[in-house]
Each structure stands twice: as C-alpha cells, then as structure tokens.
Amino acid sequence: MYVELKNINKKFGDYEAAKNISFGIEQGKLAALLGPSGSGKTTILRILAGLEQQDGGDVMIEGRVVNDVPASERGIGFVFQNYALFRYMTVYDNIAFGLKVQKMEKQKIRERVQEMVSLIGLEGLEKRYPNQLSGGQRQRVAFARAIAPNPQLLLLDEPFAAIDAKVRKELRRWLKEMIEKVGITSIFVTHDQEEAVEVADDILIINEGKLEQIGSPIDIYKNPKTPFVAQFIGTSVILDSLLGFKGYEDIPNGKKVIVRPEFVEAFKSDNQKFAKMMNAVEEGVIETIVFRGSYLELTLRVKGVRLTTHRSLERRHVEIGEKMCVLLYRVYLFDENGAQIRKNELLKGIDVEAL
Predict the structure, then answer these.
(1) H-run or E-run covering 228
(2) Is 231 inside a domain boundary?
(3) In this structure, is residue 311 part of a structural domain?
(4) Each residue of 69-96: pLDDT tens digit?
(5) Contact yes or no for 214/203 (Cβ under 8 A)
(6) Which domain holds residue 300?
(7) Whole-prediction pTM value?
(8) DSSP labels for 62-117?
(9) Which of 43, 66, 177, 337, by CA, is between 20 and 30 Å from 265?
(10) C-alpha to C-alpha distance for 7 and 55, rounded to whole angstroms
C-alpha cells in the first residue's frame, strides 16, 4: 500500500476521535473518508498531514513511517474547505507560492505555474486576485497550488462544501479527471454520499472514530458489513419487524429491518409483468408523491408502516390515495452482530431486478 494508517488512536479530552483506525490506500487511487459530522474524518486527515499528532499508531507513506516527520516535510498537498488562498496574491503567485518555498529557479516556476494554469483551465486569469474569481475558479486555484510542488499525497478537506450545488457537480467530475490525469494518490473528506460515490475509487466509512467498512462504492452499497453502513448508505426506512409481510414470516425477533427504495416495487393489479409474483404482494396506499427531477418518489402505507419507492416518469400516472400492489422483494436484516441481505422467500428463482 502507498499510504497506510496502523492502529491510529486519538483523543480530545474524553472524546475519542480515532479508535484503532487501520487502512491502506494504493498508489494513484482517489479515496473518500465518508461519515456524519463529528465522526472523526477530518482528524484522520490531519493526522495523515502531520497537522495533528496521534496518541498511538503509525502513519506510513510509501513504506516509510512518518510519525516524527514535520508536516512541511511529508510531501503532502492540502486543499482546505475554504480554499485558504492568499487574498493579496494573484492566481499566478498563489500557485507559485510552494515552488518559491522550495527555492525553485524562476524560469522553472514560470513553466510549472503555466502548466498548472493550463491544467485547471484558467488561462488568461493569472493576474486576477481571489476576490475576482468565482467559487469554482478559486477551488481550482487551490487545487493547482496544492499539486504544483509535486506532492506524494493530496489531501482535501470537504473541498466542495463552500460551492453551490450546480458548480459542485461540475467540480466533482473535473476533480476526478484531474486526479486521473496527474496520477497522484488522493484522499478527500466528505459527508455527502452522492459525492463520495461519484468521485471515489474507494470509500472508507467512518463513524464515531471507528472505521466501519472500506471498499468500492458499489461493494459498500450492495454489501454493507455493519448495521451503521446499511443505514447510512442510501435512503433507507428502518423497521422494528416485518410481522405479517408475506415471504418474511420466519425472521426471528430482535432483527431490525432496513428497506431501501430499490427493494420496493409498486404497481397496479393489472400489470402483467408481475403476474407470477402476486402471491408475494401486499396492498398499499400512496400517501405522498414527490417529484425528484428524473423520477417520482412514492411513500406508501403498507401494513401500518411507510415504505418508499421510486417510479419512472414514463410509467402510468398515479395519485395520492390510490391503492397499489406492493412487492417487498429484498431487505437488510441487522442486529448487534452485523447486517445481512434477505430475499423474499416467495420469490426464490425469480430475478425481480431483471424485469
């Protein structure tokens, strides 16, 4: 592994920000530290950068323990949430700052800055000051300043938090492309699931100072290893039981249930596509309909509980109060020992998702 944390612990008073954290990231990968606010994500990032000293454990970069190496000598580029650009320096001087600290020759500085300006697509704006740039442009300058000195590792702390939603989506794609082009190992902190899934090669789920799971976005979404991950990833409904639901009669007491929208199918009784599954159907009533841009989000009352599903805009029009056939074809069961996927017993041998 190119970057490794081994048994990292960190306390602030009585608060444990990192509890025996261990993970590794391969060279050239873009990894996301994802978790709720206060989970310890930024503390882990700062320990990696050398801006915070761990109470125990080792930080390794390229096989070398860097516990006692100052932040300025770790070869790390850092992009802050609020850009942290020098207000009284131009775009050119901001990007050149780290190169001047390295005492690089003036001609080489000019060449490197021009290379960075071209990379971030801000040619012609070299003489502008930060207050003359948009939020997205300032973040690009912060990115260029961080990678100009050719760091071994790039760390980004909520890099898109201060940017409006439309620009944030554009910058996500841009960042992923830039990281792939430059080939630098990178780790960014976020509490935004969509952001992590869209940008990261690997996601590390952090909760209350603990590493819950590490894996690709698809693996984490489809195979959550802990109850927290099963609840945190995606939009879920949590139920105390599935008492009375067809196909789930044998679920033992003490198992809670997580239902995601994609586990629920709602349709009219005359829909022949689902004819062979009617023995597993429950009756539901639409309580709310929310337009989400590319689909409708339906909330249905089924056997006294509320379930959510997504419905294509191309399907038949439905209204609040309308009765629907509801098919609950898969759930996550979880207890203190972990989470597991459970398919409806009445649908064995039928691939609902392929319909």
Answers:
(1) helix 227-232
(2) no
(3) yes
(4) 998 888 899 888 776 889 999 999 999 9
(5) yes
(6) 237-354
(7) 0.83
(8) TTEE-TTS-GGGS-EEEE-TT----TTS-HHHHHHHHHHHTT--HHHHHHHHHHHH
(9) 337
(10) 10
